[in-house]
Amino acid sequence: MTDLLSLDDVNVYYGPFHALRGNNLTVGEGEIVSLLGGNASGKSTTMKTILGLVKVRSGTIHLAGRDITNASTNHRVRAGIASVPEARRVFPQMTVDENLLVGAYTRRDKAGIAEDLERMRDHFPRLAERRRQEAGTLSGGEQQMLAFARALMSRPKLVCMDEPTMGLAPQLVDQVLDEIVRINSELGVAVLLVEQQAELALSIASRGYVLATGEIVLKGAARELLDNPEIQEAYLGKAGQG
Amino acid sequence: MFDTLIAGLLRGNVYALGAVGISLVFGVMNVVNFAQFSFFGLGAMLAWFFVAELGLSFWIALPLVLVICGALGLLINITVVRPLAKFLPLAAMLSTYAVSQILDNVSQITFTAEFRVFPKVLPTSNFHIGNMRFGTSDVVMLAITGVVMGVMAVFLKYGRTGQAIRATAQDQEAALQMGIPVGRIQHVAFVIASALGGLAGVFIALYVGIANPTSGLNVGMTAFVAATLGGLGSLGGAVVGGFVLGILEAFGIHFFGDTAREIIIFFILIVVLIVRPGGLMGKVPLLSTEPLTGTFLGKGRPLKIPRWVWPVAFVVGGVVIPLVANNYVLTTGTQVLIYAVIAAGFTVTAGQAAVLALGQAGPIAIGAYTSALLTLYLPVSFWLAVPLAGLSAAIVASILASPIWGVKGHYISIATLGIGTVIVAIIRLVEPQGIYGITMPKWGDTLLATPVAYYLIDFGVLVLTLVVMWRIRHSHLGKVISSVGSDEIAALASGVRARDYKALAFAISAFFSGVGGSLLAHQYTYIDPTIFTMLMSLLVVTIVIMGGVSLPYGAVIGSIILIGAMELLRFTPELRIVVYGLVLILVVRFRPGGILVRNS
Known about the structure:
The complex is a heterodimer of chains A (242) and B (600).
Chain A: E1 3-14, E2 17-28, E3 32-37, H1 43-51, E4 58-63, E5 66-67, H2 73-79, E6 81-84, H3 96-103, H4 110-123, H5 125-129, H6 140-152, E7 158-162, H7 170-187, E8 190-195, H8 198-204, E9 207-212, E10 215-221, H9 222-227, H10 229-236
Parallel strand pairs in A: 3-8, 3-9, 6-7, 7-8
Antiparallel strand pairs in A: 1-2, 1-4, 4-5, 9-10
Helix pairs in contact in A: 3-6
Chain B: H1 2-29, H2 35-53, H3 58-85, H4 89-111, E1 116-117, E2 127-129, E3 132-134, H5 136-158, H6 160-170, H7 172-177, H8 182-208, E4 210-211, H9 216-230, H10 235-256, H11 261-275, H12 285-288, E5 301-302, H13 309-324, H14 327-352, H15 361-377, H16 382-401, H17 410-430, E6 442-443, E7 446-447, H18 451-473, H19 476-486, H20 488-493, H21 498-524, H22 534-547, H23 552-568, H24 573-590, E8 597-598
Antiparallel strand pairs in B: 1-4, 2-3, 5-8, 6-7
Helix pairs in contact in B: 1-6, 1-8, 1-9, 1-10, 2-3, 2-4, 2-8, 2-9, 3-4, 3-8, 4-24, 5-6, 6-8, 9-10, 9-11, 11-17, 13-18, 14-18, 14-21, 14-22, 14-23, 15-16, 15-17, 15-21, 16-21, 19-21, 22-23, 22-24
């Protein structure tokens, strides 16, 4: 598998605070990779670094072989990285359709955008029903679907998802995970998934990375990580205080 | 009656254009843009210049004005607003306030302050319905506004950039993640807003027939109130707010006369802020995302001042200067001392309670008038009048401000600005002529009329003020006020009634402003409402920010630099304001804690 995204020895600072410590990370084409870690471990910072919202002090980021270390977010989205932000962050006073069009902001091909709008409506029938409704009036689950669809409107190669199950009812969590798998398999889009709930994330991912205080402390196939006693203790709550 | 309605529509037209610009910028940047106000005056002056001086056709002049205003807006955004907006929205607002003063006064220096007759480019009374007359000019203005609003609405609803503007306004972070170049979108919004401001300015000139560089401020404040009335950030609301306010104002003037204008406008502002802070069409949650007031100021560590400085400063200020200085220096020194009193007192509000009140000229005026009237018409001596002036300023300002303390974010600054303006407007209504022959202080039977005597009296008051401020800061009360300023939510959670303490801090500051006002009145021996302008308020804010917003002695340094140095350099009043504005912008940008505070 060729690497779609690769971070090499990336260091990020917030003022004097060393937020990411020489991290290496790759996502292959069409792969689901999950990024795990506790609070303030650097998961969101990694996401922001990939999206270009945070500046890198040293190290490089490549997308499909192209150096994007210093590219703006706008250029990265053009190059094929899309994002599903933490807490969904749909535009509440814009309609569902308008939200999708904003997702296609970096594109200029009108015909292609119209086509993708249709595709999204087919793919997410609920959104088609509510196309003229303001996004702020949708339920949490619907907003999450909208956030997915909006990300896909830029025709990305990679979607970065920041805790997509956060704040959703338990029965919706499974739906969201199914949806991620469906997006991945049907559209061939790679997914980098940040999650607090390690077991859920690893259940759909092929590989995983574990961050602690800004450093990648563990990595491997999802299966191995699930069986790793350290992970079980730290993130799955299966040992110790259980 | 119908006449009044038409007049209201035409005024409302101007306010709506301005309000849309203000709301647009507020939406995408979360900054109240006072610089917008200047474009009203500037638009009018540029149109006058092109049409009357250069003899250009109105239809060539109009787009030229829009282009120039748009370009200037872009420049302001790049140099001043954007660098601050992301981290320090309140500092950005303050800087736009400074920018607006700079623009107004540069325009005044360029075009002079004269009222220029704007040429009649279009007929103004060639039509009539019944016995009501109106002209092509009015029709054209309303039609242009209609077209502009229609184009804006379509652009924002369906345009790629328009949608990006709305997305940015609703969730900047998410917009960025969608690949929207937020910086560029903000530039676009700023350019549109500035051009709309220029257009509104041209309309003012057309409508009133007169162009004046400083006409922008009044219109700007009204447009801002219109935007607030409609709901800041809501563009439809801005249009509605503009027309509603224009009509209300026209009827208000019809019934109460032109002098009541400001009072009506600010009355509406205060009512809206209290009753429906989100405005007619805005959503109240918009306010909860507002940054709390003032958290950027007073950060960092004050420079350490060696102990010997205090007695040395006391001896130099209280003994050496009175002995060696000539009358000119002493008179200037007295001004420095008075402003130092006002500014030192203001540090409780601006620094400790972190409420950036922008209308301090109001309490200063109350103090000046109280003291002048007491000593003239009642057997009250100067010595008693000074504290009474402070007391009355504190009481009146507190009563007027009492409804605003629940208001948050930018709004509290604007509400205090409104209160200051209302106070002066009321004084103008009651006593438009000014007061002459204010008595000089006496000691026993000796008249203390020499500059040295004034200087020494005011020096004494300043020393007392600094001692009182020092005591307050180190008291339990002072610590509670500081807790409200540094983290209001934490203070509330600890059972501190934040609004009461903000009100108290404001009252303390108003007291010292009143004292300062009294001293000013007795030094000038003549006062009228034109002394107590928004510029005076700006000066107080600038002094305090320059010296370090929570350092009372910093206020003395700020006053020496801004009053003393300006006077000794003999700058013209206009140039001084430009310098005040520049100093404010530079300090806020590069040394937000003040010149005596090291950045942390």
